[in-house]
Write a structure and sequence with these properties.
Elements lengths: L10 E5 L13 E3 L8 E6 L9 E5 L14 E5 L7 E6 L4 E9 L16 E2 L3 E5 L3 E3 L2 E3 L6 E4 L11 H10 L4 E4 L3 E3 L8 E7 L12
Parallel strand pairs: 1-3, 2-9, 12-13
Antiparallel strand pairs: 3-6, 4-5, 4-7, 7-8, 7-9, 10-11, 14-15
């Protein structure tokens, strides 16, 4: 039997400060597109950090195969350790904006008198972005290759007679992706974001309704 090649699993380190904030430049966490096998993000916390006192790391990255629900956080207990850092590995199954926070009980103040018992507290929420994987005809595209223009769909005119010339003009200016404001029937304000009926396309643009789509 021929030997099989084992695929390595990449791990991205995310060190956290004593207040739970990410110890990275600008505190902005930007991760590459998901891979196969899935790579991991490793939260690294100093074992003697005060946030480890009755602490828990809460992350809303869903396990593989589960649907992402923004309010659903998974708890990872933080056990203080004077000899090593605490490391928590979490697989990244798909792209999206995720977040984490930490709950812990602060250390009591040093005093010779009576001190109040600290109450459990929660840090602010920090965010991490996992880039999507884009492809055209089975070829992967880096996000930097996109040149996107946003346009107000209600000013595009009739779909059958006006859109081609507008799209051609955008292409001539070097744009390769178009972001449209909602194409549905608008409300009384006529704002492109004031949708009257989410199930009906704008009849001023699409005279034949869904047949034009």
């Amino acid at each position: 039997m021929a030997p099989t090649l084992q695929q390595t699993q990449a791990i991205y380190l995310l060190p956290l400060r004593d207040d739970g904030s990410p110890d990275v430049a600008g505190e902005y966490i930007y991760l590459p597109p998901p891979s196969d096998p899935a790579y991991k993000i490793r939260f690294v916390i100093e074992g003697t950090s005060s946030i480890c006192r009755e602490g828990s790391l809460w992350v809303n990255i869903p396990p593989k195969g589960q649907k992402f629900v923004r309010k659903n956080y998974t708890e990872y207990k933080l056990t203080p350790d004077f000899n090593r850092n605490i490391e928590i590995d979490i697989e990244i199954p798909h792209a999206g904006p995720f977040s984490y926070y930490i709950t812990y009980t602060p250390l009591p103040k040093l005093t010779t008198g009576k001190s109040d018992v600290p109450e459990a507290t929660k840090t602010k929420v920090w965010y991490l972005d996992v880039s999507p994987r884009l492809s055209v005809q089975e070829s992967t595209l880096p996000l930097k290759s996109l040149s996107i223009i946003s346009c107000l769909s209600k000013f595009m005119g009739d779909f059958s007679s006006d859109w081609d010339k507008h799209l051609h003009g955008m292409s001539e200016r070097g744009y390769n992706m178009v972001h449209f404001t909602p194409l549905m029937m608008r409300g009384d304000s006529n704002s492109p974001y004031s949708i009257y009926d989410q199930l009906t396309f704008d009849k001023q643009i699409f005279a034949n309704g869904e047949k034009d789509i």
